[in-house]
Write a sequence for this structure.
């Protein structure tokens, strides 16, 4: 995790110009379906390989080809990896958005652009680097059909030259990207070199931005959140995976499928130790996961908001019948189809209380790829221990973007299957009562279908049932059962991870955030200190239901800002459900909901403004 | 040995695996007296008893409706899920993935299957999941008090006088077309035929889809209804007399090759189709569909085994899953060793 320092220092270059080292955002504006993703990821990886902390955010349209897409790469010697609102460098490749893109630049920013677009006329306070992309691509890519795809690699070469990215690292990154496709790698490498040569001969560096090798990424990995989630599920020992495609969650199960085929084939028999099914819709996906959970599998599904809505009835069923399953929600912007390829924390309230009647569900709130991994593992244990559906609330920013991280640690906890009785145990006890609270934690004992004894059978029903799982409409039986479920939720509370708390110098201002907002908060804390003399405490939620530490935090501070990436302050709403009137009176809200990942500046300015500090 | 032993009751006859018929019974039914669904539960009990099905291997599955309540009325010592309306197929699929040795016994209604659940029904048939899927078909929504369902025939009348003006969905034709591998229609009042068909379904490896006309005595057993006892009795036209010989019995019983078609099922049992229409070939998909359309046009209710494809691989076979139930695999089989994580981490550096 990054430590918080002052803003970067500017050094002096020989030419007398102030050089700005390892602190810039590059925005690449292209058309989707043009192969720009490869060029962007190679760039990102090359910077990473130079030891410079880096992050990448892909802003893409809900479309397969032909619409504008932007990729932002942020290099930060201080390790800040949140999105920034401004960029110092622009690569303008998309004729449709180029003019608007250029107008967003700060004075003094640099712009590499396709010569044909003639952008130079638009601004006098921007440094322009025109490049004849078409002219450069023809000689390196004789096959005209491939040119569109290779063309973008040219800007990698241009940027390498202008910013000081080592070509050797571009080469390595390319090879990593193309793995065994040597021919494609070579074609792209030639394009990058052509760009580099062109820049060397024709472009005069006139901006202060530079990237220099440092040593802050050694031993780290680069991975997308969804791949980290998939790895978590793999090592959690998931056995049944059922899903329905939806952005931004599809890559969870797609990546998992690859891993499972590779690492989960039984060596003796050559058979799969898992089943993965692409269901007909999300209702079926969760129905299958619950059927599998009932029959004893470790089951999961992954989805996004529209799928969560469809799953509502089944989730209530799982809650009431008490069946384990893990549901990964990679949140995106709603309502309805919303902005399907943009990020939000939009399902917090609907998921916590999903379904009709009185229902509440445990949720994990990962902020990083390493938490995607570890919380995936924890969630399977929790689901089986509590015998209930458990949610892991990721989002598009975390799930689909590439993040830098320490390598993941192999699990130290064994797989926990919860309270499952064998035929032998049931025989010894002379029978069992499925929904009886024997241990005082609200969790009954279950048997798995197929357990060979007549005493082991039981009937799972979503209608009213007594401790023996027999149909009942008696008021007292219903109340007892619902009270036990509420008590079980209190047991859940003791099993959830506590928040991560860092106290401020004074007890005036506290900040509560969760999920991907963390990266903006981490940076905002420094900005608030430096610019507004606000030394805030910070409490990062990691789960719902909230643990005692959350209340302790609120009680300690005079004013507590709850950061939500949604319009309706959903986490604040959940806190209200669980807090005392006095606690509630301290809560304020900072909301960000334009579909772009939250940035530090927005948080800093909003808190400062509410504090009357500016 | 004591001299005063209680004489075994006549019903205490043991089946192949040493269980009495009472082992296969369920709770007392809460459905209306005379409801066709009750007769189907009885046939399920008899079929499981006679086939020597191990109750602990049975997963009873249903959706919501009067029909979907019936799993509580058979095989008490089995496991059961009364799922949500129209979504039993997905729950069944998940359960079978978790433990392929279970015997999925699904009971649904015509509303549960052909209206709210038609999406999941279609995909279940398509996958050929090993399951016995019984529709207790009364042409109406019993539990919500008699509204039309999507299997109600054109022109059929509700008790209130409302006439159905939409054509019915033929669940058998749909199932055959989609890939189910044992498709039959029967009538809750035809004990012999229904019992034979359920036994055949138990012996079959794949999706067995049985549409059983099951009159709702409370809402849909009056004149003008095409799913009433009297209407079905008058219009029932069996394709062939169905007899079933389990693998553990001798095939020679009653076997007359000249007039009998013998179909060997996956477990070695036989379904014998006799006399009525010996030319009928239930392994011919096109012929089956053609026959259903024709009889429908004639206003007949065709019953019997329409289609069977005993050798087609099931969904479970296709997934190449381990023979042991996934549900109970040990940690050593489901959590890869540390070297695997190290290797993956290395590749991401
Ligand atoms: C989502 C949902 N919608 C509606 C209902 C109400 N409902 C309960 S049973 C039923 C119809 C059942 O009809 P069918 O499956 O034919 O069963 P039958 O009672 O006729 O045996 C309906 C509409 C429900 N339980 N759930
Ligand atoms: S209402 Fe109809 S379907 Fe329901 S139990 Fe009564 S007779 Fe059977
Ligand atoms: Mg019905």
């Amino acid at each position: 995790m990054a430590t918080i320092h002052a803003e970067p220092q500017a050094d002096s270059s020989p030419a007398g110009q102030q050089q700005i080292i390892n602190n810039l955002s590059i925005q690449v504006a292209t058309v989707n379906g043009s192969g720009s993703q490869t060029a962007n990821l190679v760039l990102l990886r090359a910077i990473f390989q130079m030891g410079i902390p880096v992050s990448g955010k892909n802003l893409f349209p809900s479309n397969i080809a032909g619409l504008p897409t932007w990729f932002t790469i942020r290099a930060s010697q201080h390790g800040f990896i949140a999105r920034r609102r401004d960029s110092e460098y622009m690569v303008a490749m998309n004729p449709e958005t180029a003019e608007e893109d250029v107008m967003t630049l700060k004075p003094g920013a640099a712009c590499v652009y396709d010569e044909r677009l003639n952008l130079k006329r638009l601004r006098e306070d921007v440094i322009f680097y025109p490049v004849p992309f078409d002219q450069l691509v023809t000689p390196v890519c004789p096959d005209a059909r491939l040119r569109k795809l290779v063309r973008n690699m040219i800007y990698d070469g241009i940027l390498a030259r202008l910013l000081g990215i080592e070509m050797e690292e571009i080469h390595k990154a390319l090879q990593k990207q193309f793995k065994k496709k040597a021919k494609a790698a070579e074609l792209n490498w030639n394009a990058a070199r052509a760009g580099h040569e062109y820049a060397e001969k024709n472009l005069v560096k006139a901006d202060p931005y530079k990237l220099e090798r440092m040593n802050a990424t050694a031993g780290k990995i680069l991975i997308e959140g969804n791949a980290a989630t998939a790895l978590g599920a793999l090592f959690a020992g998931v056995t049944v995976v059922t899903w329905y495609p939806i952005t931004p969650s599809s890559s969870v199960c797609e990546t998992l499928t690859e891993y499972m085929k590779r690492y989960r084939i039984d060596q003796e028999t050559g058979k799969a130790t898992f089943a993965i099914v692409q269901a007909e819709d999300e209702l079926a996906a969760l129905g299958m996961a619950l059927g599998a959970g009932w029959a004893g599998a470790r089951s999961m599904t992954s989805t996004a908001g529209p799928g969560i809505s469809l799953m509502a009835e089944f989730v209530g069923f799982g809650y009431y019948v008490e069946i384990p399953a893990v549901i990964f929600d990679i949140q995106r912007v709603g309502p309805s189809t919303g902005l399907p390829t943009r990020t939000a924390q939009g399902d917090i309230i609907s998921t916590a209380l999903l379904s009709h009647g009185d229902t509440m569900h445990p949720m994990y709130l990962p902020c990083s790829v390493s938490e995607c991994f570890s919380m995936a593992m924890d969630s399977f244990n929790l689901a089986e221990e509590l015998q209930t559906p458990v949610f892991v609330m990721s989002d598009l920013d975390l799930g689909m973007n590439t993040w830098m991280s320490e390598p993941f640690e192999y699990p130290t906890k064994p797989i926990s299957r919860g309270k499952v009785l064998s035929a032998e145990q049931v025989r010894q006890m002379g029978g069992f009562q499925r929904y009886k609270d024997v241990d005082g934690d609200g969790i009954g004992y279950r048997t798995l279908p197929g357990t060979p004894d007549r005493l082991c059978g039981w009937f799972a029903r979503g209608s009213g049932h007594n401790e023996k799982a027999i149909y009942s409409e008696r008021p007292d039986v219903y109340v007892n059962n619902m009270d036990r479920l509420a008590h079980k939720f209190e047991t859940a509370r003791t099993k959830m991870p506590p928040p991560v708390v860092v106290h401020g110098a004074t007890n005036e201002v506290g900040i509560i955030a969760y999920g991907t907002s963390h990266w903006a908060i981490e940076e905002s804390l420094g900005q608030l200190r430096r610019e507004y003399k606000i030394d805030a405490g910070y409490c990062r939620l990691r789960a719902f239901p909230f643990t005692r530490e959350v209340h302790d935090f609120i009680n300690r501070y005079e004013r507590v800002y709850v950061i939500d990436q949604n319009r309706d302050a959903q986490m604040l709403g959940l806190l209200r459900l669980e807090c005392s009137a006095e606690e509630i009176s301290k809560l304020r809200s900072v909301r960000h909901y334009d579909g772009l990942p939250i940035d530090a500046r927005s948080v800093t300015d909003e808190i400062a403004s509410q504090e009357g500090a500016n | 040995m004591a001299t005063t032993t209680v004489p075994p009751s006549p019903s205490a006859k043991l089946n192949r695996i040493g269980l009495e018929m009472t082992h296969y019974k369920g709770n007392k039914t809460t459905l209306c007296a005379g409801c066709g669904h009750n007769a189907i539960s009885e046939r399920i009990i008899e079929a499981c008893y006679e086939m020597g099905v191990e109750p602990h291997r049975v997963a009873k599955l249903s959706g919501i409706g009067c029909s979907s309540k019936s799993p509580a009325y058979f095989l008490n010592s089995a496991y059961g899920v009364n799922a949500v309306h129209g979504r039993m197929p997905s729950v069944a699929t998940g359960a079978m993935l978790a433990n392929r040795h279970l015997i999925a016994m699904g009971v649904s209604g015509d509303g549960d299957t052909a209206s709210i659940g038609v999406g999941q029904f279609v995909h279940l048939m398509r996958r050929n999941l090993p399951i016995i899927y019984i529709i207790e078909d009364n042409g109406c929504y019993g539990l919500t008090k008699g509204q039309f369902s999507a299997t109600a025939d054109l022109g059929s009348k509700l008790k209130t006088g409302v006439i159905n003006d939409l054509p019915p969905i033929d669940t058998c034709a749909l199932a055959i077309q989609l890939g189910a591998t044992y498709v039959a229609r029967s009538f809750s009042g035809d004990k012999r035929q229904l019992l034979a068909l359920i036994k055949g379904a138990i012996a079959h490896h794949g999706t067995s889809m049985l549409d059983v006309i099951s009159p709702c005595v409370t809402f849909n057993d009056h004149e003008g209804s095409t799913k009433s006892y009297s209407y079905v009795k008058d219009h029932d036209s069996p394709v062939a007399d169905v007899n079933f010989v389990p693998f553990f019995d001798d095939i020679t019983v009653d076997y007359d090759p000249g007039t009998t078609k013998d179909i060997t099922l996956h477990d070695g049992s036989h379904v014998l189709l006799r006399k009525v229409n010996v030319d009928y070939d239930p392994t011919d998909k096109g012929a089956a569909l053609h026959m259903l359309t024709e009889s429908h046009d004639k206003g007949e209710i065709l019953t019997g085994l329409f289609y069977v494809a005993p050798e087609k691989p099931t969904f479970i076979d296709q997934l190449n899953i381990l023979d042991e139930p996934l549900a109970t695999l040990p940690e050593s089989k489901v959590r890869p060793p540390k070297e695997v994580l190290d290797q993956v981490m290395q590749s991401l550096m």
Remarks:
- Residues 182-202 of chain A form the longest helix (21 residues).
- The radius of gyration of chain A is 27 Å.
- Confidence is low (pLDDT under 50) at residues 1-14 of chain A.
- Chain A has four domains: 20-218, 223-405, 423-492, 500-610.
